[in-house]
Amino acid sequence: MPPFAPTIVFIGGGPRSAGILERLAANRPGLFDGPLSIHVVEPYEPGSGRIWRYDQSPGLLLNSTAADVTMFTDNSVACDGPSVDGPGLATWATGVLDGSIRDVPELEAHLLEQLRALTPASFPTRQLQSKYLEWFFRRAVAALGPDVAVTVHRDTATAVEHPGPGPDGGAKYRVRLASGGVLEADLVVYSLGHTDSRAEPESARLTGFAARHGGFHAAPSYTTDVDYSAIAPGQDVLVSGMGLAFVDLLVLLFEGRGGCFEDRPDGGLDYVPSGAEPRLWAGSRRGVPYHSKISSTLRGEPVGAPRYFTAYAVESLLAAHEELDFRTQLWPLIAKDAGHAYYRELFKGYPERVRGSWDEFSAHFDDLDWYSREREDLVAAAVPDPALWLDLEALDQPFSGCAFADHAAVQRSVANYIERDVNLRTSPDHSETLALFTALLRVYMELGRLVPQERLNSRSQQAVHGWWHGFFSFVDSGPPPHRLREILALHRAGLLQFLGPGMWVRPDEASGRFVAGSFQSPVVVDAAAYIEARLPSPSMARSANPALADLHDAGWGTEQSLLTSDGPHSTGKLLVSSSHEVLAPDGGRQAGLFAVGPWTSGWGAGAFARPGTNAAPFRENDALARRLLAELSAPHPTSSVHPTNSQLLSF
Predict the structure, then answer these.
(1) How confident is the model at residue 461 (pLDDT cuts 50, 70, 90)?
(2) Is residue 235 within 8 Å of residue 228, measured between CB atoms?
(3) Rounded to an integer, what distance in angstroms lies between the CA atom of residue 514 and that of residue 290?
(4) What is residue 603's predicted lDDT score, i.e. its pLDDT?
(5) Cα 51 from Cα 15, distance rounded (Å)
């Protein structure tokens, strides 16, 4: 490799970096001619990284089926670079078994067994997914060609320094490693997945309380990285949060301690305890776990592109308004798209459940606002069974307005809700749930492409990253159906009790125990152990990642701040431009520094996606790769927009 080859350093080598590398390979022939040096700094195995590493419990699964996982930017992705077809996880597994995919290291016996048992509808283990991601990384590196040198450093980046412009006038950086090494870079890409943060003040207070009283407290964290060995068999444990981290927690504390599930004649499950399990008391804001993934198939037409939340509709709103409001201007269009897909499947798939024809219903539906009495009357006249009416607010808050008389009422209500959800989403006779799922997914993938984030008012940016993402995750990003059956089995076994919606927790100094209850129930319980089952909120100021902490503390990067009715509000996320450039506190771009991931203010989420969905992370990967190549192709990167030392001091 010539000594003058321009250099890119990736801080982080998980699936997101692998996706960008693949896009660099695909776009390089048309944008950059010459040698290139790439360094990937990743303490775990490149490709899988920390979150998807092999070294975790074999009981942990993906929440997507094998058919719904790909790393390839297929021809559905609306991007400027060339599409590249390649095997998704299911096809890759078949290719490994039949020998058509040979560039895979020898797999352990239990992984080969998983490959043989895998079907497109299976939910693979994260261990198996790690092997697919690592294979993709190696493939992306190979696709870059012989004049691109890729060096992987099994190390941790601790800081990025900017000693000054290089001899050609371009920005030059030094990336410092925990081992003491230093990497020279023309461009630096922070490409990290979910990162840890130091505990928020309230969580830190609870940890201190538990330490003083000999209890246990787990602050928000990646579930599989927490040591739960201090929790004793039979011990009562309070758990706040019933999302995906909660599902992982159940795997670790029950099957992970030797218990197992057995099939029941009615299709349910029974739990056979090992005797090493604790007893959990779980609640959350909604009081129920995420909705099950769906196993039905559509009877009617495939769900196409959004009909109301379109480029034309958004452009019309942008032309008429300086700022857009998500809840009043965009959400009604999204809700209407969801309703259109849902009711079309009812009409097309189950004509015995409706009155009239779809064409007649659709013609009226097109002319009505989602939040109008006329639309409600149209549905009531066409769908006789009120249980089939789509109520998105009730879907979001299933126990809103409910007051539970006692503990037994909470248990019945939550268990019945979970049972009904599993039945709806696994029954072949309720594919309208799949239509709703698909419509929301398509809008979720389109939102970042159609709506410039800077044109949303501050309240709406909070709503998008808060409520909308949470609602979408609740409806579309839930666990496999059998996980909910396991929750019911644990409940029947007396090892999981429900606290209900509106959960609260407080430390009680008098007893030295945590006390918990629900704002909608009179039930109050106490325990010496408390687990906050969720990922930590993003925070640059409190980041436990040394490179991100350095970026913030040096004044090069800043948290996104929104001006709300209550004053300035920090989202905790790193502020980046629409091109993923790191932005300084004064808004100027930091030439040569880029960042992508869930801890940035960018739109995209995830690192892999369903095939054929024009996935947002793939669009972002392509745009960022092209931007990197364009920067390297320029005579020299412009450094005049980088803040001066005096400016940095003023920050």
Answers:
(1) confident
(2) no
(3) 25
(4) 74
(5) 10
Report whether pLDDT(647) > 50. no
Helices (H), 270-350: 311-320, 331-349
The position carrying tokens 């990285």 is 225
C-alpha span between 477 and 62 (Å, rounded) = 11
Cβ burial 385-413 (10 Å sphere, 16+ → b, else e)? eeebebebeeeebbbeebebeebebbbeb
> pLDDT-based confidence at 561, cuts 50/70/90?
confident
Residue 302 makes CB contacts below 8 A (sequence gap 6+) with none
Query: What tokens appear for 575 in the block?
Result: 């502020």
Secondary structure of residue 353 in the 3-state scheme? helix
- Please tell me whether residue 89 adopts helix, strand or coil conformation: helix
Residues forming beta bridges with residue 531, ordered by sequence position:
218, 239
Residue in 76, 87, 71 with CA at minimum distance from that of residue 23: 71
Rg, Å, the chain Cα set: 26
Is pTM beyond 0.85 here?
Answer: yes
Virtual torsion, Cα 593, 599, 603, 604, nearest 10 deg: 90
Percent of the chain residues past pLDDT 90, beyond the cut: 86
The per-residue pLDDT for range 41-86, each reduced to its tens digit, is 999 999 999 999 999 999 999 999 999 999 999 999 999 999 999 9
Q: Closest Cα partner for 521 from 443, 393, 412, 433? A: 412
For strands 157-161 and 173-177, give the pairing: antiparallel
User: What percentage of the chain exceeds 70 in pLDDT?
Assistant: 95
Number of Cβ within 10 Å of residue 112's Cβ equals 13
Strand partners, 171: none
Instruction: Give the DSSP letter of residue 326.
Output: I
Q: How far apart are CA 31 and CA 629, in angstroms?
A: 6
**What separation in angstroms does the CA of 405 have from each of 302, 401, 504, 521?**
44, 13, 17, 7
- Is the distance from CB of 207 to CB of 201 less than 8 angstroms? no
User: Residue 332: is it exposed, middle or buried by C-beta count within 10 angstroms (0-12/13-18/19+)?
Assistant: middle
